[in-house]
Amino acid sequence: MNYSKAIFRILKTIDVAFENGQRGSNIFDLNKLGISDRRLRIILKSLYNDGYIDGIAFINVMGDEIPDYKLMGCHLTVDGMLYLENNSAMKQIYAALKEAKEWIP
C-alpha cells in the first residue's frame, strides 16, 4: 500500500464531504482507500495530532489500543488544505516531467 496516496485520499475525502455537507463516519470507502479500518483509525489520529484535520472525536475502545472515531463536522485545517494543494501541484509537476522525458532523446 502506498500510504502517501492513502493519506491524500483520506484528506480529499474529508474535504469533499465537508464541502458537500456530508456528516457521519461513513464517508470513507476502505476499498477505494486500499487500507483496513484499523489503519484508517491510525492515520486519522495522526492527521488530527499533526494538525491536518479537526472536528473529530476519538473514543477509547476496550480491548483495542487504537481508538475509534466519530466525525463531528470534520474538516481540513489550513495545514491540511496546504498539504492537498502542495501534493496536487507535485503530481502535476511529476506528470509534466515524465511526459517531457518521453520527448527528449
Explain how this protein is built.
By secondary structure, the chain is α+β, with helices and mostly antiparallel strands. Helix content is 57%, strand content 21%. The chain contains four helices and two strands, in the order αααββα. It has helices at 3-19, 30-33, 37-49, 78-103, and strands spanning 53-61, 64-76. A two-stranded antiparallel sheet has the order 1-2. A hairpin with a 2-residue loop joins β1 and β2 (64-76).
Task: Reconstruct the topology from this structure.
Layout: H1 3-19, H2 30-33, H3 37-49, E1 53-61, E2 64-76, H4 78-103
Antiparallel strand pairs: 1-2
What is the 3D shape? elongated
Q: What separation lies between the terminal Cα atoms?
A: 33 Å
Sheet of most strands: 2 strands, antiparallel
Question: How much is the average pLDDT?
Answer: 87
Portion in beta strands: 15-25%
Q: Helicity, in percent? A: 55-70%
Secondary-structure class: alpha+beta
Low-confidence stretches: none
Using only C-alpha atoms, the radius of gyration works out to: 16 Å
Compressed to H and E, one letter per element, the order equals HHHEEH
Strand order of the biggest β-sheet: 1-2
Oligomer kind: single chain
Number of helices: 4
Annotation, overall tally of beta strands: 2
